[in-house]
Amino acid sequence: RASQSRTSQPRAPRVITSLTNERVKAIRALDMRKERRETGLFLAEGTSILETARAAEFVPQTLVYQAGSASSLVARLLISWALEAGGEVLEVSQAVLSKLSSKDNPQSMIGVFQQKWATLPERPARGDTWLALEEIRDPGNLGTIIRTADAVGAKGIILIGNTCDPYSREAVRATMGSVFDMPLAKVSREEFLVWRASWPGDVVGLHLDARDDFRHAAYKDPVLLLMGSEGPGLSESLTRSCSRLVKIPMAGKLDSLNLAVATALSLYQIRGDALSI
Amino acid sequence: RASQSRTSQPRAPRVITSLTNERVKAIRALDMRKERRETGLFLAEGTSILETARAAEFVPQTLVYQAGSASSLVARLLISWALEAGGEVLEVSQAVLSKLSSKDNPQSMIGVFQQKWATLPERPARGDTWLALEEIRDPGNLGTIIRTADAVGAKGIILIGNTCDPYSREAVRATMGSVFDMPLAKVSREEFLVWRASWPGDVVGLHLDARDDFRHAAYKDPVLLLMGSEGPGLSESLTRSCSRLVKIPMAGKLDSLNLAVATALSLYQIRGDALSI
Ligand SMILES: [Co+2]
Ligand SMILES: [Co+2]
Q1: What are the CA-CA distances from residue A239 to residues A164, A208, A249 (Å)?
Q2: Separation of alpha carbons A202 and A219, rounded Å
Q3: Average pLDDT for residues A108-122, to the nearest whole number?
Q4: Cβ separation A277–B181 shorter than 8 A
Q5: Dihedral of the CA atoms A55, A61, A64, A68 (nearest 10)?
Q6: How does pLDDT run across A151-190, given as a tens digit for each residue?
Q7: Which ligand lies nearest the alpha carbon of B58?
Q8: What dotted CATH number matches A2-114?
C-alpha cells in the first residue's frame, strides 16, 4: 500500500537573492525577441493576468514572487497552482523582482509560459469571425486588438508576414490577459493567400480607396476581417484577396485612425448582432 | 524710400553641434512635465505632424533640423515658415538631433510650440459633441483619443482632475497631429460639476453598472460624453452628474475594453449620423 501512494510531492519555492543568478538572467533574457523565439517562452506580469492564465488552463514553467508578498489569497492560490502543476516557483528579493519587472514599483508576480500557436481554421462555422492582421508593427496596438477581439467573441487572429511579437511584454500587458484566451496563428503572405481561397464567407478589407461605408455593407457570414499595417495599410496582393473593401468615414482633413481603433470599430460592426448586455 | 523698406529680414538658421549647448539642454528638458508646465512649451516631432501644426496656424518657437537633411520641399517649406514667423531655427549635428529625438534613427525635424488651452464651452450648439475624460493616466491612450475625437468632428476635449499631460511627447505622437486641431480644456472636478449644470443636452457616461446598451440609446443633442479613467472608471460624483449611463456589450468573461477603444466606439455611435464617406 505504501508503494501505491507515491504521489509526487509538490516542490517548495526556491529562494533567489542574487541578481546574477542564472535563472534570473534566463528570465530577463525573454525580453529579447530572439530568446523568445528560441525558447518558445514568454512573460506575463501581474496577478490579474495570471488569474486569466490559470482560468485558460495554462501552466507556468516558472512563477516568480517577492519574498513576504505572497500572503494574499490570490497569491497563495497562484503559487499552489504552479507547484501542483510541477512548475518552478522562485521566491526572490525585491532587487531581483525589480530586475525582472517592467514596472517601477513591482509588487506583483511574474509567470513564464510556453507560447501557444493555433493553426488556420479549416472549417469555419456560420457565425464565426476571424481577424487577420498584415505586418502589424506596434505591440501596444496588437495587444489592444487581441483584447478587443476577445471582447467581441472573435474565434482567432491570424498574423500575416513580418509582424511584431504578440508575446512581447508590451503586447501581453496590453491584452490584459486575453493573450491566454485568443487563438493566434502566424503565417506568411503566401500561406495566407492559399488558405484564403477556401474561406466560405466574405473577406472584408479596410481600405482608404473603398467606396462603401463599413456600416452599410451586408457581410456574408462567416466574416474574415483583414487589416493592413499602421501607415501603409493593406498590400496590393492582400487587397486583391478581399471580397469586399470598406472604409470608416471621418470628419475634416484626417485620413486615418489608430489601427486598434479602426479594428475595434470594424469588429463591433461585424459582431454587433451577436452581442448584447 | 529706403527707410520704408525695412522689412524685417528673416533670420538665418543657427548652427549647433555641441551636446552641452544651453538651447539643446532647454529643449531636452521639455521631456519633463515640470518643465513643460513652467514654460508652457511642448515638443512635436516629424515633418507630417509639423505640417499639421502649420495648417493649424501654430508658430514654432524653435525648429530643429539636422544639417544636410533639409533639401526636401517639405523641409524647406517648414524652415521658411519658422523663419518668417520669427521663430528660432537650429541646424544641428546628427548627435544633437539624436539627443533631442525620441527615435532611434531620427531623420526628422523637431518643433517647440506654445501649449494652447481652451476654455469650457459656454453655449454649445445643436449637433456639437464634446468629450470629457476623468483622470486619464496613459499618454498613448490620451493621444489616440484626441486623434479619434478629431476624426469624428468633436468640438473639444475636457480633461478633468489629475490627468496625464496631452503635451507629453508620447501623447503628441499618438495624436498624429490632431493635438494642434482639437481644443483641450483642463479643469478640476469641482469646476466641471459647476459648469456641467448648464449643459443643455445629454451627459452620457460609460459605466459597467449601466443597463442600457450604448447602441440603443437615443441621445439628446448636444451630447457630452464622459469617460472614466483606465481601471477604476468614473468616480461616484461624476457618475451622478450623468443624465444617461450606458454600457458597451462584450462577449465572454471580459468586463472592459481599452479606454481609447471604448471612447472610439462611443464617439462613432454618437457622431455616426454626421459622418459619411
Ligand atoms: Co478572457
Ligand atoms: Co487635423
Answers
A1: 21, 11, 19
A2: 6
A3: 96
A4: no
A5: 70
A6: 999 999 999 999 999 999 999 999 999 999 999 999 999 9
A7: 2
A8: 3.30.1330.30
Q: Where in chain B are all domains bearing CATH 3.40.1280.10?
A: 129-274
Please give, rounded to a whole number of angstroms, the shortest distance from the CA of A161 to a CA of chain B: 23
Residue A120 has pLDDT above 90, yes or no: yes
In chain A, where does the domain assigned CATH 3.30.1330.30 lie? 2-114
Q: In angstroms, how far apart are the furthest CA atoms of chain A?
A: 80
- Which ligand sits nearest to residue A177's alpha carbon? 1
ipTM of model: 0.93
List, for residues A7-44, the tens digit of each pLDDT value: 555 578 899 989 899 999 999 999 999 999 999 999 99
Say which DSSP state B233 is in: B
Stretches where chain B sits below pLDDT 50 are 1-6
Q: Which residues of B touch A (CB under 8 A)?
A: 55, 140, 144, 147-148, 150-153, 174, 176, 178, 181, 211-213, 215, 247-254, 256-258, 260-261, 264-265, 268, 271-272, 274-277
Neighbours of ion ligand 1 (CB under 5 A): A 181; B 253
Q: Angle of helix A259-271 relative to helix A139-152, nearest 10 degrees?
A: 10
Give the gap in angstroms from C-alpha A185 to the nearest C-alpha of chain B. Answer: 21
Question: At which residue does the C-alpha cell 460639476 appear?
Answer: B193
Tens digits of residue pLDDT in B151-189: 999 999 999 999 999 999 999 999 999 999 999 999 999
From the CA of A94, how many Å to the nearest CA of chain B?
26
Who wins on pLDDT, A71 or B229?
Answer: B229
Which uninterrupted H or E stretch holds B113? Answer: strand B110-114
Task: Tell me yes or no: is domain A129-274 CATH 3.40.1280.10.
Answer: yes
User: Which residues on chain A place their C-beta less than 8 Å from a C-beta of chain B?
Assistant: 55, 140, 144, 147-148, 150-153, 174, 176, 178, 181, 211-213, 215, 247, 249-254, 256-258, 260-261, 264-265, 268, 271-272, 274-277
CA B80 to chain centre: 25
Question: Which of B151, B213, B264 is facing A254, going by the closest CB pair?
Answer: B151
Q: Give B28's contacts (C-beta < 8 A, 6+ positions apart).
A: B99, B100
* Chain A residues inside the 8 Å CB shell of B46: none
CA distance A45 to A106: 9
